Amino acid sequence: MQFAAPAEHYDRFMGRYAPTLSAALADFGGVSAGMRVVDVGCGPGGLTSQLVARVGAENVAAIDPAPQFVGACRDRHPGADVREGVAEQLPWPDGRFDAALSALVIAFMTDPDRGVREMARVTRPGGTVAACMWDLATGGMTMLQTFWSAVRDVDPTAAGERRLPGARDGDIAERLRRAGLQDVTAGALTAHADYESFDDFWEPFTLAVGPAGQYLQSLTPDRRAAIRQGCRQALPQGSFRLQARAWCARGTVPVAG
Ligand SMILES: C[S@@+](CC[C@H](N)C(=O)[O-])C[C@H]1O[C@@H](n2cnc3c(N)ncnc32)[C@H](O)[C@@H]1O
């Protein structure tokens, strides 16, 4: 799936979960000083920031197919090796990194299994591949669950995002095992975002970012208004914090012999 929105719009929609999600994924992937790491599907660089803080920009590479995200990620992380491209065809040699990480990208790859195989290829034997994707199957990502629940009250046939690759418990771990990774461990990460008001929650949905924003944009104004009202009724008055669960998995690249 293509992300055409400006980086600032992504920041307001999903980027506000990046600080907590990225820290949790980097911990889960064992990222620490002295490692060389790559962020696959970096977007504007939420996870890249966390990796740069841990290992230094000179030890961080990142890649994304959306040129406006690549530009933002480069501007935000001088010294990091930020490329335009896809997970399925990474432009680095075999074994270049100690760890390859990917946050919220499996669902949007054209061929997720191939993307995972490429992450394993560019990671050295004994290194780690780790990825996460929101729990969209059982509703652990409150912001998107609130939205799609309001959508289904208006349009029960809406496909939503729950069947996307990576969105159910165990899916990422299965992909890592299929890619030949060893000692695969699955788990869940928690993240959160703070909202000043309902408008602060709703307005980013109108920016056409990702499947939810693009779906909303395709509707008539009265349907959009009905979904807005459904979300309004489901959320607290005033400021609030929303929790979000992501499924994750990590595995180790086998050592030959
Ligand atoms: C939900 S965003 C996640 C961005 C970032 N990792 C984050 O956590 O904020 C999904 C990203 O996947 C990228 N993407 C889509 N298809 C991809 C592919 N085949 N390979 C790598 N990245 C891809 C999009 O351009 C977008 O930046």
Structure summarized in a few sentences:
The protein has 257 residues and is of the alpha/beta class. 37% of the residues lie in helices and 23% in strands.
Write out the CATH superfamily name: Vaccinia Virus protein VP39
Q: β content, as a range? A: 15-25%
CA radius of gyration: 18 Å
Helix content: 25-40%
CATH level-3 fold name? Rossmann fold
Structural class: alpha/beta
* Order of neighbouring strands in the sheet with most strands: 3-2-1-4-5-7-6
Ligands bound here? S-adenosylmethionine
Q: Number of helix segments?
A: 10
Q: How would you spell out the order of helices and strands?
A: HHEHEHEEHEHHEHHHE
What's the CATH class, please? Answer: Alpha Beta
Poorly predicted sequence stretches spanning 5 or more consecutive residues? none
Question: What is the correct CATH architecture?
Answer: 3-Layer(aba) Sandwich
What is the arithmetic mean of pLDDT?
A: 97
Characterize the largest beta sheet: strand count, sense, and whether it forms a barrel: 7 strands, mixed
Distance between the termini: 39 Å
Report on this model:
The protein has one domain (7-252): Rossmann fold, CATH 3.40.50.150. It has helices at residues 7-13, 18-28, 46-55, 67-76, 112-121, 142-154, 171-178, 198-202, 210-217, 221-234, and strands spanning 37-40, 60-64, 81-84, 97-103, 123-134, 182-195, 240-252. The protein is built from ten helices and seven strands. The mean pLDDT is 97. Helices cover 37% and strands 23% of the residues. Strands 3-2-1-4-5-7-6 form a seven-stranded mixed sheet, with helices on both faces. Strand 2, helix 4 and strand 3 (81-84) form a beta-alpha-beta unit. Helix 2 packs across helix 3 and helix 6 crosses helix 10 (221-234). It binds S-adenosylmethionine (SAM). The site of S-adenosylmethionine has 26 residues, from helix 3.
